[in-house]
Amino acid sequence: MSIVPRSLSDQAFEVVRERILSTQIPPLAPIRQELLAEELGISKIPLREALGRLEQQGLLSSHPNRGFFVPALTSTEAEEVFALRLKIEPEAAADASLCADEGERAAARAALTALENAGTADAHATVRFNRSFHLALVRPGGKHITAQLVERLQVLAERYVRKHLEPAGREARAASEHRAILEAWLARDAARVSRLLSEHIVTTLHDLREQLENSEPDEPPAATRRRPRRRVSE
Asked: How far apart are CA 38 and CA 36, in angstroms?
């Protein structure tokens, strides 16, 4: 059996997704396909495939004759994403805590350590490690569909988590909440895991409601800045 290398479309998908999540491509920024394809060193065909996948995942929007652009952060989307997290994630983490083996428990500890060590210097690293920590809490137990749903919601929530952590003091509070959740998870206290994780999600959404109020533009800008050339490996 041969190993098939990642396609150019797959590589472009990952590059553009990380730029969106890290806000290198900010909300409402249009995607200039010709410039981006040139920068990545690929044709527009694999790039369009990648952009279509990102639209399916909710990280891009498109309009006829206007192309793709990064959607704005909105209270409507935040409410939907965090409500779905609230329905799935606390119970999934609670169930996973009861069946996690020693390797999975060690992975959860390591994920939180990585998040805590990220500090405040690199906001993108912080939210990426935050995603890894939350996923480590739901993976044990072999419920792959549930884990995939949680991961999809974590990706959609990531731009909002970044927004949520902007005010001073938010990271310290989140760190305390994460530590309490992990302690309950390691103690296999499923009821407490569910309660603490639910409170963590609800508190984050409450903060976001205030941050997003009256700050929801609905038109993408007409132009975006050209980036330095970067070639996707073949």
From this structure: 5
Whether pLDDT at 231 is above 70: no
Report the percentage of the chain scoring pLDDT > 90.
Answer: 66
Could you tell me the pLDDT band of residue 65, with boundaries at 50, 70 and 90? Answer: confident
Contacts of residues 77-84 at CB distance under 8 Å and 24 or more positions apart, as own/partner, are 77/156, 77/160, 78/160, 78/205, 78/208, 78/209, 78/212, 79/205, 79/209, 81/153, 81/156, 81/157, 81/160, 82/157, 82/160, 82/201, 82/202, 82/204, 82/205, 82/208, 83/205, 84/153
Separation CA 183–CA 178 (nearest Å): 9
pLDDT tens-digit map of 170-205: 989 999 999 999 999 999 999 999 999 999 999 999
End-to-end CA distance of the chain: 21
Do residues 118 and 125 touch, judged by C-beta distance below 8 A? yes
Burial of residue 20, with CB atoms counted within 10 A of its CB: 0-12 exposed, 13-18 middle, 19 or more buried:
buried
Question: CA 129 from chain center: how many Å?
Answer: 10
89-99 in b/e form (b: 16+ CB < 10 A) is bbbbbbbbbee
Residue 216 near residue 113 (C-beta atoms within 8 A): no
Task: Report, as an integer, the average pLDDT of 28-52.
Answer: 92
